[in-house]
Hints:
The complex is a heterodimer.
Chain A: E1 2-5, E2 10-15, E3 18-23, H1 25-31, E4 34-38, E5 45-46, E6 51-57, E7 61-65, E8 70-75, H2 78-81, H3 85-88, E9 97-100, H4 113-121
Antiparallel strand pairs in A: 1-2, 2-3, 3-9, 4-6, 5-8, 6-7, 8-9
Chain B: E1 2-3, H1 7-10, E2 26-27, H2 31-36, E3 40-44, E4 47-52, H3 56-65, E5 67-71, E6 76-81, H4 85-89, E7 105-111, E8 117-125, E9 130-134, H5 139-149, E10 155-158, E11 162-168, H6 172-179, E12 191-196, E13 199-204, E14 213-219, H7 220-232, E15 236-238, H8 241-250, H9 277-282, H10 288-297, E16 301-308, E17 319-322, E18 325-336, E19 341-349, E20 358-363, E21 366-373
Parallel strand pairs in B: 2-4, 5-15
Antiparallel strand pairs in B: 3-4, 5-11, 6-9, 6-10, 7-8, 8-9, 11-14, 12-13, 13-14, 16-19, 16-21, 17-18, 17-20, 18-19, 20-21
Amino acid sequence: MSRYYTEDHEWIEVEGEAATVGITEYAQEQLGDIVFVELPEEGAELEKSKDAAVVESVKAASDVYAPITGTVIESNSALEDDPSLVNSSPEEDGWFFKLTVADESELEGLMDEAAYKSFVEGL
Amino acid sequence: MRDTARLPATVGYEMMSEEETETPPEALALDAWHRAHGARMVPFAGYEMPIQYEGIVAEHDWTRAHAGLFDVSHMGQLTLSGDGAAQALEALVPGLVSSLKPGKMRYSLLLAEDGGILDDLMITNTGEHIALVVNGACKWDDIAFLREHLPDEITLTHHDEQALLALQGPEAVDALGELVPGAAELVFMTAGYYDWNGVPLWISRAGYTGEDGFEISVPAEHAEKLATALVEDKRVKPIGLGARDSLRLEAGLPLYGHDLTAEIDPVSADLTFALSKKRRETGGYHGHERISAALLDGSQRTRIGLVLDGRLPAREGAEIFAGDTQVGTVTSGGFSPTLGHPIAMGYVDAAHAEIGTSLEVQVRNKRLPARVAEMPFVPHRYYRGS
């Protein structure tokens, strides 16, 4: 089980053939109070670096991109009732969706935790 | 994750024009103070401005319950002096200025020759001169326009040596009253000079949040001292532009560059209260003919408020539909922290503007049910005297 990060502040945790995606602590802090999350439907085909979800904070709408290519297995229905979970627990309970890992080699271009940490420090 | 709507265009008091993005933003007199208080700074209207401190919703709620301190020093503080300044200004605005008594102020609109709105502004008779407070992003254009259209004997002064702070919320009167004796006696839309430990303050009881509150013009070199004294009061917290935008939206107050533009006349903008009754007849201002016609026949498009169900906000640019027909566009919208659902402002064809009309708003691939609602969305709480 390993967690990767993108420069657009998504995290992806891979467990065998499936992966869970969310946004990072840094991202939720930048966004501020989140009022709505639009999630991809089960079965949706996502393409690496293309639109996957939309986060609506009080101030703006922000796109969330798929860190890798894959098919959506499940979306986090808890976010429908309580989108603020993304603020309170972005890297745990506030996950966005799970998808299949279509091409494992896509993970190679992503950052690990240490690399992401120094990436954020440099912003 | 990237912002699809860039921040400076979506939050704040007015739109940043494109030219201004080319020159580096200026620092406010309170720049270091904002940073020391944890502000996140963004370029806006030519300045580095605090967009938020602890978070927009917390700041929004604090202002509705207590008192919020806003730095609005980016706005233009102008004065007109010389004989006949009030009358001369009346050629450019639809409100009565010459009859304003000393210490009284009025909301008005700076009108282009065709009656389009160039800016919205506050006009005050200070006793010595006519004072204007104009939007930060418009101020340079406003100054040029005023210079061009006012007679040479009227002197226009830009008081960029003054900072402008707004203290807004139900506890603003107690907080300011304790610091500045006498200020609490002002009522809504009145103003006066006050002394604060030797520092001259020009204080008006006005603002743009829908709450009772004040705007305080203070020499820039004393702004930090005043801001510090104000937030030492436990009822007062610094509030950023983000909450300023959500507060004014709930109050139904239009934002220049979004809800008001040079293409829109005062009648379409539903700002007929700014058209002084007497001057509707006597005229003598830019666009009077067009405005009179619109008053008589009604305007084709009109500014409305929209209330949406659910939680998904409709933002600026979202298309408004009646059935399959597009009947309008959202000009500003967001999630209302006070009401707990999305609200928006926009323009629709007059046939669909009646309160209670059911419409739909397109957000990405969804059509959201919306209905035309009375504004303000959250009642104003101005203090008009006991």
